[in-house]
Amino acid sequence: MGKATIAFGADHGGFELKALLVAAAEKQGHPTLDLGTHGPAPVDYPDIAQAVCTAIGEGRAARGVLICGTGIGISIAANRFRHIRCALAHDVTTARLTRLHNDANVLALGARVIGPQVALDCLEAWLATPFEGGRHAGRIAKLTDL
Ligand code: RB5
Q1: Is residue 19 in a domain?
Q2: What's the domain range around 89?
Q3: Does residue 77 lie in a domain region?
Q4: 10-residue block means of pLDDT along the chain (146 residues)?
Q5: pTM score, whole prediction
Q6: CA–CA separation, 61 vs 33, rounded Å?
Q7: Is the C-beta atom of 45 inside 6 A of ligand 1?
Q8: ω before 37 within 30° of 0 (cis)?
Q9: Ligand 1 and 15: CB distance under 6 A
Q10: Domains: count for the chain
């Protein structure tokens, strides 16, 4: 079985970091879907979150990565979608734990608050870590029911 397709999206605060992360995901063997933005012209992070979350909902990608200046706005937007569990991470430990415990299907990163190497390490850990299931599965089901 091939590796999961990962959809990427960023606003103008995160498009440069996005390019680095797309290249890293591809190097790890993941097909990618880059849903923009591609330059410094201002765009609205809810529109980017919608593009990525819709791609996941339609099965065009299994998981997504969203980047804005802080990661906050774009993670709030993503979590408006019922099928999305988006986690904002600033370090490798939370990136890993949000896969293990929360089965996060979207990772949010803040390009203006973490450096590129930390972001790359977060992505690598998040892509490589499976959901632990077990006691966490019922909690995920409760999230879906909220
Ligand atoms: C855009 O200037 C900035 O507000 C956005 O990237 C993000 O940080 C919002 O949460």
Answers
A1: yes
A2: 6-145
A3: yes
A4: 94 98 98 98 98 98 98 98 98 98 98 98 98 95 92
A5: 0.97
A6: 7
A7: yes
A8: yes
A9: no
A10: 1
